[in-house]
Amino acid sequence: MILAGRIRAALLRLIGRPESTGARGERLAAEWLVAHGYRILGRNIRTGFGELDIVADAPDGRTIVAVEVKSRVRRIDAPGASRSVAPEASVTSRKEAKLLRLLRTLVEANHWHDRPKRIDIIAVELDEKGGAQIRHFENAVRRSRAR
């Protein structure tokens, strides 16, 4: 059994690991943003209490945009909730509060006090054939909503 595990690990190093749903969604979201005039400043930015999926400059060149990416694979045979609930619906008020805190931390660290800022959500729905549907919700998280 140990040998089988080592062989599997060696093969994965050689051929690479398959991209997870979350990683694929974040990659597609970043590509979508770039195609629409955004400049990616960072991905998977970690702090002591969480992570921002993507941070970008908006097309106006001034606005800082923190982007939360939510991805889901749509399967015809999936159970009800997996088939019918949109990925963006999983952003709760608790998650919104955390995103606001993460953005404040980033603003402090980079001295972006004088720049406009917002938090967007990008929903990525992947289908079994490799296709993707992307929805971008600008300014989806606001202070008044996250209280």
What does this structure look like?
This protein is α+β, with helices and mostly antiparallel strands and 147 residues long. 35% of the residues lie in helices and 33% in strands. The protein has helices at residues 2-15, 21-35, 80-84, 93-110, and strands spanning 39-47, 50-57, 64-74, 117-127, 132-141. It has a five-stranded mixed β-sheet with strand order 1-2-3-4-5, sandwiched between helices. The chain is globular and about 55 Å long. The model has no long low-confidence stretch (mean pLDDT 85).
Question: How would you sum up this structure in a few lines?
Answer:
The protein is of the alpha+beta class and 147 residues long. It has 4 helices and 5 strands; from the N terminus they run ααβββααββ.
Question: Which labels suit this protein?
Answer:
147 residues; 33% strand; alpha+beta
Helix content: 25-40%
Order of strands across the main sheet:
1-2-3-4-5
Order of helices and strands: HHEEEHHEE
The coarse silhouette is globular
Radius of gyration: 18 Å
**Main β sheet profile:** 5 strands, mixed
Mean pLDDT: 85
Which range does the strand content fall in? Answer: 25-35%
By helix and strand content, what is the structural category? alpha+beta
Distance between the termini: 51 Å
The number of strands is 5
Query: Unreliable runs, pLDDT <50, ≥5 residues?
Result: none
Continuous helix count = 4
